[in-house]
Amino acid sequence: MPDPLSYRPALSRMQPYTPGEQPAPGKTVKLNTNENPYPPNPDVVKAIQDAATGPLNRYPDPVATAFRRAAADALGLPGPEWILAGNGSDEILTILVRGFVGENQKLRLPYPSYILYRTLADIQGAAWEQVAFEDGWQLPAAFGDTPDDVRLVFLPNPNSPSGTVLSATEVERLAASMTCPLVVDEAYADFADGHCIELVKKHANILVTRTLSKSYGLAGVRFGYLVAQPQVISQLGKIKDSYNCDMLSIAAATAAMSSQAWLADVVARMNATRQRMSGRLAELGFDVTPSKANFVWCTHPCGQHQAMYEYLKKNQILVRYMQFPDWGDGLRISVGTDDQIDACLMILESYLKNV
Amino acid sequence: MPDPLSYRPALSRMQPYTPGEQPAPGKTVKLNTNENPYPPNPDVVKAIQDAATGPLNRYPDPVATAFRRAAADALGLPGPEWILAGNGSDEILTILVRGFVGENQKLRLPYPSYILYRTLADIQGAAWEQVAFEDGWQLPAAFGDTPDDVRLVFLPNPNSPSGTVLSATEVERLAASMTCPLVVDEAYADFADGHCIELVKKHANILVTRTLSKSYGLAGVRFGYLVAQPQVISQLGKIKDSYNCDMLSIAAATAAMSSQAWLADVVARMNATRQRMSGRLAELGFDVTPSKANFVWCTHPCGQHQAMYEYLKKNQILVRYMQFPDWGDGLRISVGTDDQIDACLMILESYLKNV
Hints:
The structure is a homodimer. Chain A has helices at 9-13, 42-52, 65-75, 88-100, 116-124, 168-176, 197-202, 230-236, 247-257, 260-283, 305-314, 338-353; strands at residues 29-30, 83-86, 106-111, 127-132, 150-156, 182-185, 206-211, 224-227, 287-288, 295-299, 317-318, 320-324, 328-334. By secondary structure, chain A is of the alpha/beta class. Chain A has two domains: 9-39 and 261-353, Aspartate Aminotransferase, domain 1 (Alpha-Beta Complex); 42-259, Aspartate Aminotransferase, domain 2. In chain A, the strands form three sheets. Chain A has a seven-stranded mixed sheet, with helices on both faces. In chain A, strands 9-10-13-12 form a four-stranded antiparallel sheet, with helices on one face. A two-stranded parallel sheet of chain A has the order 1-11. In chain A, strand 12 (320-324) and strand 13 (328-334) form a beta hairpin. The longest helix of chain A is centred in the C-terminal third of the chain and has 24 residues, at 260-283. Chain A is globular. Chains A and B meet through helix 1, helix 2, helix 4 and helix 9 of A and helix 1, helix 2, helix 4 and helix 9 of B.
């Protein structure tokens, strides 16, 4: 008799994705998962509290119309039909893989970048292939040269862990040579100087994902979205759960999107901190990759990155130690408040005195 | 050159699932999607408002530990490792299909029942097969006789649209003969006299899903969960998005689960209304299926179900008209407040005067 609990083989084989450590709330300074160090917009808090006294016994709007209208306004899009709302951009990424990549087909991603894309391929029973960044974090033209079995390409832009950006012109050139959709994951785009949303209007195979977890400071609320041409939104909408976003998070995300001045202010503050921390890290001897995101990738000639991570952790500062096989390792440090960054730099300085 | 936007064939072929109508808030009496007519527990509202001033800029607990502890206590389970929390039980159902059913394999469901299961198979590129209920809403023994290509069986219990229940003994007997997992969808179990959670402790292939949308009156919050043996929870946890439940809904669901007295009270009130409406519908000449859920399935010898639905709708009362090919049609009426049900019955009475 067969095993009455036999999982899909793809699932039994795979390792789960491990997100960054989430210590219990307390004294730890969290600079490891690129959260916003500032509390959210008070308008957002008020919107949630108002929604809490609303008709929670009723199903929410299945397509988050209020949010999509506010987002279309903020982004200069023709209308809400260009937007698909999701339970975090994680859900949007899952929907994209399920929409385009069948079992035994492939998705492509740059290397090093966000390894969750690989997990999404694994869950789907699909394969993945990585194309390495060249010096200066540029992508070879071959990244856009997609054989028939590559059904989807992911490009985080700004990239993680590097914080580097490909220009819209470069993205357009890559997408033009692809025979499948290109997903530009713009989780960190609010911290950069440009973005690719205008390209979506011109090219049906350019799809842009965004999240409210980083720049809007709402990681706890789980809200993200896809920007794509209306026929793409309509097809991919078949995959989502009927009521994928709850009333509270729709209210929060709508209020957040309607306060672009708050966003500009917090981004300016964080980018100033990023510039200051990059300079100080360089003074400490780090090789600092110029970042357009809310984190900084740095390596030190001493090569003791893992030991530095552990020393910081012992001192209640959590950064991300990352090791990429056949490539190298380093530290990815999220932009915190100025005080948090000063504390981190002080401990790094004290570590380096003993090297 | 291939189409740069080619969806998985399964997706292009499929029709999307259409949930029940959600009219704009206003005067409509909604008796069509089995929501709870009463406002949620004030403790839940307070928990959300408190959480709104918490660290929303941080990621939530990826495995909703606080909720799982409260749920394990409420359900008499050994511990939180028997529970997987989801963004509505819809997400749990999606995870189950992705966990067990590969492209070109099959899932099985009774007929008539919840057609969303078919949509989930379609999205996955899998097939589905239906086994018809026998007279008296019993299932033939053949329902448990699963060939190798059937990888998952769904059993809503209580069933929709009938509101009928198979006993735990009957469920155990069916599961014992299956060579795949049996998902007992207990969305409506709080309105019934029994449930199958005890069976999970004995049988690894019995998996129970629950939702907070119905009895707890929290459809707007999107929270559901799976009860299964710990090794099943652990495997299926690989499929969910890393942070699938947000801080606000975790706070709400934890507070809800911690107030079992509130639940008992609202269920008693709704079941009393169900009994009263069932009796009155019978007096109006309807054939009423005895229900153990928060809705009633009824047919009338006049057969004018669709016309009745439309007449009710014209009078701002929305019920669910359901038509099952090769089986028949009827009305599924959710248990509302006593006033709402009185209004519905009055309009049905007025319709029937002219038949």
